[in-house]
Amino acid sequence: MTPEHVITKPVVAAVAAHAARGVTGVVRLEPGVAGLVGSVARTARQRFKGLDPVPTEGVRVRVENQVWVEVDVVTSAVDQAVAVARAVQRAVSRAITDATGLPVAAVAVFVLDIELS
After folding, report:
1. In whole angstroms, what is the distance from residue 94 CA to residue 40 CA?
2. CATH code of the domain containing 24
3. Is the dihedral of CA 104, 106, 112, 116 positive or negative?
């Protein structure tokens, strides 16, 4: 009998956040208002359980048979926002599949700001 593995949304979100931050042109992930509320609640739950919170701000995940991801980014003005968003989609999709084996249905990237400096 093979052991069953459960992959939770925070794990998938952490993988996605790490992959997105590694894309050239991404200055940072930027949570919206809903993301901030969710992040505070998630961090509190993790600390209550004695766990170190993983950085998932700016990432929302839905997991069923497939994974749907939304990523909020701030890009550099030096890079084209569309090219950066496409690179984030590819990097996040590949990282989730490689790390979890779960198929990714969609990665939506929202460019919330473009940093000039």
Report:
1. 28
2. 3.30.70.1350
3. positive
